[in-house]
Amino acid sequence: MYPRQARITLERLARGFPVLALTGPRQYGKTTLARASFPDNPYISLENPDERDFAEQDPKRSLARFPDGAILDEVQRCHCLLTGWQDMLRR
After folding, report:
1. Number of structural domains the chain divides into
2. How much of the chain is helix, strand and coil, in % rounded to 5?
3. Burial bucket for residue 65 (CB in 10 Å: 0-12, 13-18, 19+)
4. What mean pLDDT value characterizes the chain?
5. Is residue 69's pLDDT more than 70?
6. Average pLDDT, stretch 36-53?
């Protein structure tokens, strides 16, 4: 992986925000950056039909599995997760 200034910024932002979104063109290293920045967090790909189905059927329980955070790849495939985390933070 090429060294990235974005990694420093990403790690700094993670200290102040419960949710971060990485956006950009396909095949540009977003997943690699996230996994390198947060190697201890579980990696969940929503391209996996089982993960996506679980998240769509029960978004709160799906997110609750990761109280210390996770890397959710391809989250745009499951729109309910983009709003479900807000309810959990209100508690």
Report:
1. 1
2. 55, 5, 40
3. exposed
4. 88
5. yes
6. 96
Residue numbers of the domain that contains 78: 5-90
Cβ neighbours of 41 (radius 10 Å): 16
Radius of gyration of the chain (CA): 13
Record the pTM.
0.82
3-state secondary structure of 49: helix
Q: How far apart are CA 82 and CA 29, in angstroms?
A: 21
Neighbours of 5 (CB within 10 A): 7
Q: How many CA atoms lie within 13 A of 77 on its CB side?
A: 15
pLDDT at position 3, please? 60
Give the Cα-Cα-Cα angle 67, 70, 79 (nearest 5 degrees): 100
Q: Please, where are the H alpha helices in 1-91?
A: 5-14, 30-37, 49-57, 59-64, 79-90
